[in-house]
Structure formats: C-alpha cells, structure tokens
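Possible regression after last week's pipeline update?

I re-ran a chain I had predicted before the update to compare outputs. Posting the input and the new output here so someone can diff against the archived version. Not blocking, just want to make sure nothing changed silently.
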Amino acid sequence: MSGLRLSRRAALTWIVPGAVALIAAAAAWDTFRHDTSPSADRGDGDIRLRGSALPQPGELPGTLVFASQTDCRTRVLSFATLTVGPAGPAARCGLWVPPRGDLAAVSLGAALGFQGSRISLLSLGERPELVGELGVVRGEPSWSKDGGRLAWCTAERDTVLLAVETGARRRVEGCRPKIAPDGSVLTRPALDFTRTLLRDGDVALDEEELTRAFPADSDGPLDLVGYDVSADGLLAVVTVRFESGRRPRRLLQLWRGEQLEQAILLPELTLPAGTGRLGDRVEFDPTGREVAVAYRGAGKQMTLVDLERAEVVIEPTTQHGFAWSPDGDWLAVSTGVEIRILGPEREEPAYVLPVGAAALAWR
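New output (post-update):
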C-alpha cells in the first residue's frame, strides 16, 4: 500500500503447532483468507490469530467488525482474545457500523434498475444475523454515534431518519445524510453538483459562504462533495472548484457555526471514470483531531489530515476500509489482504493482522 511502510516487526511469522486441533484451525483460517468459492467451508467457528506481528491479547481496546474480503460475510475480531468469531450471513461488501449499539447495516445486493442497494439491519451478536430489510438505499447510510438512529437516502431522493428502538420515521430534504452529534441531519440537495449544505432541510452553508475559503482570484463552478461533524460541533466540509486552465482545487473547510476557522488544501488525484470523487467520504476521528478524506467504497484512495498541524499525515493511499480505535489513538487500515494498525504518529504499522477485510469498523 503506498503511503504506509511496513516496519521490520510487520513481517509475519506463523506459528504452526503440532496439535491436530490447531492445524485444523490454521487450515480453516487459510481457507477463510484466500478461498473465493461461494460453496467453500470458510470455518464458521472461532479462529484464533497467531503471528509475531500481532498485539498481545488485551493490548488494544474493543473489537473490529469487518466484512471478509473473500465472501463479504460479517465477522467480529476481539482484541481481548485475538479471536475471530463465527461468520454472519452472505452479503455484499457494504458494511456500516455505529461506534455503539447492537446493530449494523449491510448491503444485500443492487436494486432493480441500479437505483441503489438493498440494505438490511444486522444484529451483532455472537454470530451476526439479519433482522430486517430497510429497502433500497442510494449511496451510504449514516448512523448516530449511539446506534439509536439510522439515516439513508431513498429512491425518491430524500432522506429517511429511523429511530431504531421505536421504528418511528421522519423525512428530510436532500441525500448523502450525516447524523450530527446534536441529532440534526446534514444533507445536500440530490443533484450531481451542488453548492448548498442543508441541516434538517434548511440551508446551513450556501454558495457565498463555501466560496469564501478559496483565493479571491479563484473563479469557476463550485461543488460540495462531503462533510462530517465532530463531537464538539466542528463542521468539516470538502469542496472542489473547477478553475479554467488548472486542475480542480479541493479544500477541506472547517466551520464553527457561521465562522470559517480554517481551509486546508487537499491533494488531487485522477482516477478512472465511475470511481467517485475524493471527499465522498469525510470522517472525523473520535477526538476531533484528525479528518479522513476518501473515495467511497473498497479499493479506493484515502488521505488523512492532522487538524492541529493543518497538514496531510497520510498521503493518498489505496485502502479497503479504515477505522479508529474508540480513543482515537490507533488507526486500522485494510489493504484487502491484511489490516495494518498505525500508532499515534501514523507512520509505520505497529501491528499487522492477517485478515482480508473489504470494510471494517472499530468498536
């Protein structure tokens, strides 16, 4: 993976015990990692990870919820025991998991006419199980931090906000929803290009405000790409301006209420048509000190910005999912073949997990 250099300790050294049970477990794990046959037995029991590049049991907090790269089935990796639990039902590789709560959302397949994906709720028990289908979702759904609410864009190009416990629903104008910590829902008009950010259907930032961050001599069409809100209410917005005679200029804008606090120039990439745009996914870390800016989907590029230093600390790099530890100290980045755990300096991986993940979340 460009931008992430492996340290010496990251070279995997597998321990192959002589006991038959452990050999069987290793064989099941190898099948789980590499076999792509839909009918293959991928070892639905617990699998214990072994290797010199792993953390000690209990050294890292929480669990990783991930979609297997081989078959997209959801699994849970416990850092307390370094075991991977039984696989959930077959699904596509779309996986959206809140920091807390008992449910996740998974993609079951493309909708008729390719107007979105069929999304279902998944219970994150000992073995993940489907508990109900939401319907057709355009783009990606958004969870509240406590897992109590879920928002998604419908085929009608508006947003539904679901209260999970009661089943109550309300509709909000716009798409690409993001549930803010105060309970409001950020969206943007359901257009290919837009210059307006909405909060609960009302204008939160308009074209004049979003243009303010660009140089005075800058001119050309403006597009609002992605956004997120930190726990203390700081709003991160990615905008791009298409200027004549030069490559598009992409900014990470940071807003506190109606006050623009900072604008950071982002690296620009050129990818084949149909891959989306850098900034389709914008995500704060749990502490609010970092912002990840990425293309949507697995196998796409992401970059990481340190807000205290106002600089890019991970240059654009291909990833199949990323997630911070609950305290924000650690960052997990999937290469599709393994998961690399970066420490606070975000340099060489401190640990490497032999897990092929197409999407992941750290809880």
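Follow-up from reviewer: compared with the archived run. Residues 206-319 form one domain. Marking as no regression found.
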